[in-house]
Amino acid sequence: MYQGIFHRILSGARGLWLSLVAALMLATPVGYALADPGRVAKSAAASSKSVEASAREFDRYFRQLMKKSGIPGGAYVIVDHDKIVAMDTYGVRVKGKNQQVTLNTVFRLASVSKTFAGSMAALLEHENKFNWGDKVVRYVPELRFKTPALSMQLQVQHLLSHSSGLTPNAYDNYLEDNRPLSKILPMFSTIDPHCAPGKCYGYQNVLFSLIEDVIHKATGVPYGRQLKQRFFVPLKMEDASLGWESFMAASNRAAPHVQTGKGWRPVKVEKEYYLAAPAAGVNASISDMGQWLKAQLGAYPDVLPPEVIADLTTERVETRRHLRHRIWRDYIDHAGYGLGWRLYTVGDDRIVFHGGWVAGFRAAIAYSEQRKVGIVILMNAESRVISDLTANFIADITGHGKLMQAAAAASKN
Is the pTM value of this prediction over 0.85? Predict the structure, then answer.
């Protein structure tokens, strides 16, 4: 049963609007509600295809892949500038039970949480609470590398751009053993970066999460309270929270599922990456994420000013290996990382993106910087189809691919 929301936006002559309405009446699946006439957004590429048309094709593709992969439940939202074009859900919160996923069902965001940490840090940096060039040891004196001089080179901006120079995912295995950061930090004294901080990319969760200490010491306000006061409340993200306890306290939450020989199986909610809260600790519903995406697209300048968004999406380090990503490699010409965001160049456009994957959950957020159109997808299963869904939608709205063809190809496989 559909619970989606479609908003029609108007631009151009009345005759064009009438023809579009007629087409929508014939093509829109039963259950979608069309809002009052607005403007029809035109892309920078002057594509004749509307965002609404892409949204309808995406919905069919989404349901096709979710059903084909047997994924228990999920949700998506599509935003055009400051408008929600489509938002809908699929399936159940727990396999084998009848509790449907709703627009307010809470999912773990996993590493999409990094977009919140990056945004919060950038907001505070622009308020002069600290500087990107500040040494991390000023806020986390217990952090030491094997070579002390290299410790002194590590700046706050290096934490959020994964440019510490360390081997990727350093000591994540200890996070997975539920060790707190305070027990992991001393281990860094036995290793050194393989390049100077700021010079090369290596994805991190432990080091990234040290931004929590920076924010707390620089402002006197805990990270979780900052998120609530500066983002969740003003953006009306009513289901959003931080941490394992908050997730477990939510009555309308999705259960994590892992793949077995007999299909998807629900498992317990692990605490592991919640211990690195800025890296993977945010929980939210698809309704919340519609608000978050609108904020990133500039719809709420009082919450996220344009200069802060520009800083977030300024490339700090190149990530060449992402040019070989299984899905994105067909579209992207350059790949880099800003502050809590991946940055992919696609023709004349740039895609601002992040994915998340933690035990039993997947999440993805992406938007076209030029066209101001984006998508968020949440799933309660560890399925790679989220990459296909995200990349093919972005390819479609940027004119580099066609969702109809992707759906047709998927149906044959």
Answer: yes
